[in-house]
Amino acid sequence: xxxxxxxxxxxxxxxxxxxxxxxxxxxxxxxxxxxxxxxxxxxxxxxxxxxxxxxxxxxxxxxxxxxxxxxxxxxxxxxxxxxxxxxxxxxxxxxxxxxxxxxxxxxxxxxxxxx
Length: 115
Prior knowledge:
Order of helices and strands: EEHEEH
Shape: globular
Number of strands: 4
Largest sheet: 4 strands, antiparallel
């Protein structure tokens, strides 16, 4: 299973995170979480200038306006963002290529997710 979460803000900023839980020994029950999230997604109701979220689990896709992101779908998105953040943080002594910097993910969205 592969889970991809892409958040697109009204400003055009795009943040995408991917989790491939194969062989994951963590405490997240990915299969159960994904099946609950995809079982009954809300209708897609975007509005001008509003953020949207594109969630893909293998070949199933759900698109939802950020304001409608709740319940099991929000749980899945939060788990992907948390796991992907933990996996993408470089060690403190890591050397970045010239001109690159680690970007902070502390922007808060109305649903409480970090961007």
